Amino acid sequence: METKNGKTALVTGATSGIGRELANLFAKDGYNLILVARSDESLQQLAQSYEHQFGIKTTLIAKDLASDDAGQQVYDEVKQQGLQVDVLVNNAGMGEYGLFATETDLQKEIDIIHINVIALVKLTKLFLKDMVQRNEGKILMLGSVASVIPNPLMAVYGATKSFIYSFSEALRNEIKDTNVTLTVLMPGATDTDFFNKAGASNTKAQEKARETSPADVAKTGYDALMSGKDKVVHGVANKASVAMAHLLPDSAVTSSSRSDMKSTNEEESHSIAMSLGIAALAIAGLVVLSAWRNYNPVEKSYTKARYRHKANNLKDSVADAISSVTDNLTSKASNATDDLTAKAKSSFSDLKETVLSAVN
Ligand SMILES: NC(=O)c1ccc[n+]([C@@H]2O[C@H](COP(=O)([O-])OP(=O)(O)OC[C@H]3O[C@@H](n4cnc5c(N)ncnc54)[C@H](OP(=O)(O)O)[C@@H]3O)[C@@H](O)[C@H]2O)c1
Q1: pTM of the predicted model, to two decimals?
Q2: Is 105 left (phi over 0), alpha (psi -120 to 50) or beta?
Q3: pLDDT digits (tens, 9 = 90+) for 93-113
Q4: CA-nearest residue, atom 43 of ligand 1
């Protein structure tokens, strides 16, 4: 069936969460869809509603992407049906919550590597080759803020997202002289079934996820894909976290990320104090970065002196911010935790505003 744009998008993990919202956007724009997931029943329901609502053609491939040859089998089914994939969306993904050494299930983690990495690499290999030959096509990869921020208590999941980021950067460089584009969507915690399936219910990350709808995340990714952007981080707070991750020591970034993975019942003043310190250091980094970007070595010496003066002021403000974190921690010993938490939250929110305005 020829739709209004006549093109076809293949979406993995299309039956739920971000993948389903992405499929909705393609369907609304008249793309025919190849939908991949395990649940045949959910795929059938989705297909019926798309065909009825938008008059598009849907092709369903019920496949467990954790199985060894799944990527090749999906490609072969597409070819057997004589279809061309104009847009590939590597969205299917899973996580597993717990301490790697003692709590998580190794087989589940190997399945995660299969779904998030091996199937993605195979599908990309096969469809990208066709796209490069035709000199057209688009690929969307589901990364995460975990692509650049290590993820304690979901260590394997985080590492798979990091793989996707590095892999995508390298491929983009290799295909830069073609008309094929590759976009990485990097959401933070999003309100889908992901955390329940990963066994991460009642974590702070899941609580935070309630603020972000999968429809909004999908729209961010879809727009970036359509305009051929390299990557996009969804949400201002996530953009600030990613900026901080590029500026701060890995161990500090990882500690802060771990605090997000704690149970909602755990005491949180330490993580807030850590965040305050991180925010203070980030402000320092951003101001220095901005000064460095503006710095022109042939400018007159008074300009250099102005930067030196700014740097000295900055040093003082950072010292103040850090000592305020220390004071907060010290007062924790003698004051009620609730009081500390309220103060720390308010200071953090002020610091965050400063970071955000520096980023913008
Ligand atoms: N939610 C978040 O906070 C968040 C944040 C950053 C990035 N992401 C990424 O966004 C992507 C989508 O996640 P989501 O949050 O939308 O999760 P979700 O609601 O759990 O959806 C996952 C989708 O993947 C499919 N899937 C899972 N295992 C599969 C397998 N073995 N074979 C084939 N399909 C499989 C599921 O369908 P079936 O169960 O029917 O197979 C479902 O359609 C993932 O790559 C995830 O890492 C999510």
Answers
A1: 0.80
A2: beta
A3: 999 999 999 999 999 999 999
A4: 13
Quote the percentage of the chain above a pLDDT of 70.
73
CB count within 10 Å of CB 219 equals 16
Range of the domain at 261: 246-359
pLDDT tier at 264, thresholds 50, 70, 90: confident
User: How far, in Å, is the centroid of ligand 1 from the Cα of 222?
Assistant: 17
Residue 46 pLDDT exceeds 90: yes
- Only one residue has tokens 């369903």, namely 60
User: Which residues face 203 on adjacent strands?
Assistant: 263
Residue nearest to atom 23 of ligand 1 (CA): 13
Residues 159 and 179 in one domain: yes
Q: Which residue has the tokens 């219910």?
A: 201
Question: Do 220 and 323 lie in a common domain?
Answer: no
Give the span between the Cα atoms of 329 and 153, in whole angstroms.
Answer: 25
Q: How far is the CA of 250 from the centre of ligand 1 (A)?
A: 27
Which residues approach ligand 1 with their CB closer than 6 A? 13-19, 37-39, 42, 64-66, 91-94, 115, 142, 144, 187, 189-190, 192-194, 197, 209, 214
Place of tokens 């003082």: 316
